[in-house]
Amino acid sequence: MENLIRKEVKSLSPYVAGKPIDEVKREYGIERVVKLASNENPYGCSQAVKRVINELVDETSLYPDAASHDLKEEIAKTFNVDKDMVFCGAGSDSLIKDICLTILNEGDESIMGEITFPRYESNTLLMGAKPIKIPMKDNKLDIQGMVDAITDKTKVIWFCNPNNPTGTIFTEEEFLTLIDRIPRSVLIVMDEAYEEFVQSDKFPNTLELMKAHNNIILLKTFSKAYGLASLRIGYGIGEINFVQYLNRVINAFDSNLYGQKAATEALKDKEFLKYVIDNNEIQREYLKREFKKLGLKYLDTHANFIMVNVNGDDKKIHEYLLSKGFIIRPGFLLGMPGWIRVSIGLEGDNREFIELLEEAIEYRNNN
Ligand SMILES: Cc1ncc(COP(=O)(O)O)c(C=O)c1O
Predict the structure, then answer these.
(1) How many C-beta atoms lie closer than 10 Å to residue 292's C-beta?
(2) Nearest atom in ligand 1 to 93's CA
(3) Which of 54, 284, 51 is nearest to 167 (CA)?
C-alpha cells in the first residue's frame, strides 16, 4: 500500500494533540484531571445554547442545512456584512485546508510565522506548495519580515492574530505600514480565532480594512470564546467572488446540524460572551502576577492561554504536571523548548496549577 501514498502526504508529521482527559486518568490512575492544553473554554457554553442542543436530540438522522442559512444570516447581522461574504465549515481548522485546496498549486509559496498555528504549514505541504517560515522577532510574528518575503510565487500570507502559541498581537498601526506592499494577487488570511479575548484598542479592525483591501479574508471560530469546540464550527468573512469559489470546495455538510443551531444561538447570547471574556481577563492577570512572583518570564498574551518560560527542560515539567492530573502543552512540541503553554482555566484550577508548577520546577531542578 505504501506505493499509493502521495509524496506530499509522506512529508506531513502526525499531529500531536493534547492528551485526552480519560487517557490521563487511565494512565496515572487518578480521578481528577484538569486540561489546560488546548485553549478550550473552561466556562463551557451558554445556557441558551444548551437548551437548543437538548431540543435537537431527535434530529440525529437528518442532514444539516448545506447552506447554513440561519447561521450565516446571524453572522452577517452580528458583523454587519453581506451574508454572501460569510462561509462556514467544520472548525476553522478545516477552513484552512479548504483555502489551501482552493488556491495552492505545486510550487506556490505560502508565508507564515516560524512559530504559529501548524495547520498553515501542513496544508501547504499537502498541496505540494512551499511553506516559507519567517523567524520570530522578540517571540512575536515578524510581520515586516513576512511581507518582505513575498515573491511572484507567493499565493497566501497567514497572519495569526493573536498568534498561537505566543498569544502576542500586532497592532493596526503596524499592519497599516505594510499593507500596501502586499500585492492584490496575494491572499491575506487574518486568523483571529482568539480575537474575542483581546482587550487592546490597538488591535486591527479587519472588517474595516477589508473594505479597501478585498484580498483579505477573516477566519474565526466558535471553539474558543463561545465554548463549542466539540461541535466543530468555524467561519470566515471575505470577498463575495472568492467566497463563492471557496464554497465549492467546502464539503456541503461540514457544518453539522448541532453546530449550526448552537452557534446561531451562541452569537445572540452577548451576556455569556462578556462573562467569559471578563473572567478570562481576571484569570490572565492572576497568572501573570503569579509568574512574576515566581520569577518566570511570560509572553504578552492577549488570548486565553499564556506562554511561560520554565528555564530548562519543559518535558519534565509536563510529565510532572501530568502525573498530578494537569495537562499543559510543553513548548518542545511547539518549537519553543524551555517554555510551556498553559490555557487560562477556572480560578481554583489556576491556583492549583501555580502551586504544582512551583513543585514541578523544584522537582525538575533536583532530578
Ligand atoms: C490560531 C488558530 N486557528 C484555528 C484554530 C482551529 O480551531 P477550530 O478548528 O476549532 O475552529 C485554532 C485551534 O486551536 C487556532 O489556535
Answers:
(1) 11
(2) 9
(3) 284
